[in-house]
Every structure is written in structure tokens, then in C-alpha cells.
Amino acid sequence: MGFRPAILSLLTTLAVTVAMSAPALAAEAKIVAFTSNDGIALSGLWYGEGDNVVILSHQYDLDQSAWADMANSLADQGYGVLTYNFQGYKPSEGAQDIGAIGHDLDAAIAFARAEGAANLVLVGASMGGIVTVPAAIAAQPLGYVTLSAPLSFAGLAADDASLSTSTAAKLFINTEADAYVAATRHMFEVASEPKTLEIYPGGEHAMSMFAAAHGAEAKARIVTFINDVMPL
């Protein structure tokens, strides 16, 4: 074999090897829409497929786009994942009304069930974590996660009755200097079993901790929790 054919053969072999070993790109998210029970049209994104579904609820100063990396990672594992914008966070309609966003999570849960979700895990950051607590009573997810959730905010409340009566597995996450770490510890103490508390170094709030030194560990802990309570 001459020099040029040999080089072409080697390059072809390398290209095939790289193509076979490269990870598959995350599937493109599908834009979805549903309506809250107070009549507000909401916009969301659906990642992946399957009847094991994770619903991710955002915090006050971010929107659903902040969940994209985790949503893609979970979809790559084989989960269906729904993110959405609360009312007043475009392109969802309506004015921003924090006290009413519990309706939005309820609508997201109903939409996921209508799409075929047999099992659910709910994950909420800050105010998204507050509304996750009462929503879990009716939704009966296999588990839920809160990130730096206050006990109350702008008319929302993570009440003791919901914490103590939910049968879902629970993971409460915060950082040691966050303004709401005492609330996180209270939720853990009041909540029924099974439950886990994770407090990381630093003072980053909710999803801001993902960019900190312990961010990879915190994200991995959430994914491991989901894997454990809702195995594929």
C-alpha cells in the first residue's frame, strides 16, 4: 500500500473510532404549553422521553433556562424532564404574581401526567422549592428536592403539615451561610422520613451554588437522589 492510501485509511479509521466513542448530543428540547388552573398560559420545555419524569422549578431571579444543563443530563440518562417559566416570566403570560405560582407547578404536574408520566420527582430552587412542598401532597411524587427554600416568601409557604405528612423521599440542600439555612434545617427536622439534609460550604443561594467550588458535588447529589428514588 502506498503512502497516500495508507494515510487515508488511517484517517478513516480514526474518524470512525472518534464517532463511535463520542457521547451523543443531548436531544433538542421541545417547546410545550399548558394553562394554570387560574387561567394563565405557561411556557415550558420538555427534554427526553419516558414515563419517569423530573419537573424542575426555577427561583425568583432566574427562569427555566437555568435548569438546561441538568435537564439535558437527566434526559441523556433516559428521564423525561419538564422545565417551565412561572407566570410573568416570559414567554409565559400574565403578570408576575409570586403568591400564585403554586398554581403553575400544579399545572406542570398535570401536564406531565397527561403526557404519560407514571412516576415523578420534583426539584425546586428557592421559591420553586417552597411551592414544591405543598404540591407534593396531591402529586405524590416518589421524591422531591428543595434548594435554599425559605419557609415563606411573598404569600408562599412550605408548611409543617405538608412536610410532615408527605410520604415522598426528601432531599433538602443549602449552603452553611445562606440566609435561609435555618429554614432548611427546620424543614429537615419537621419532615417525615425518608429524608436527607445536605449543607455545603459557602453562602451561595439556591442555583448559585452550582457555580461554586462544591457545585459539581451538589449537582451530582441531586442526580444521585433522583436515580435512587426513581431508577430507570
Characterize the main sheet: 8 strands, mixed
Main structural class: alpha/beta
Task: List low-pLDDT spans.
Answer: 1-26
What is the mean predicted local confidence, pLDDT? Answer: 90
> β content, as a range?
15-25%
Percent range for helical residues? 25-40%
Task: Please explain how this structure is put together.
Helix content is 38%, strand content 23%. Helix 3 packs across helix 4. The strands form 2 sheets. An 8-stranded mixed β-sheet has the order 1-2-4-3-5-6-9-10, with helices on both faces. The termini are far apart. Strand 3, helix 2 (68-77) and strand 4 form a beta-alpha-beta unit. The chain is of the alpha/beta class.
Name its key features.
232 residues, alpha/beta, eight-stranded mixed sheet
Give the arrangement of secondary structure elements.
Elements: H1 3-21, E1 30-35, E2 41-47, E3 52-57, H2 68-77, E4 80-84, H3 101-114, E5 119-125, H4 127-139, E6 143-147, E7 152-153, E8 156-157, H5 160-165, E9 169-175, H6 181-190, E10 195-200, H7 215-229
Parallel strand pairs: 3-4, 3-5, 5-6, 6-9, 9-10
Antiparallel strand pairs: 1-2, 2-4, 7-8
Helix pairs in contact: 3-4
In a few lines, what is going on in this structure?
The protein is α/β, with parallel strands linked by helices and 232 residues long.
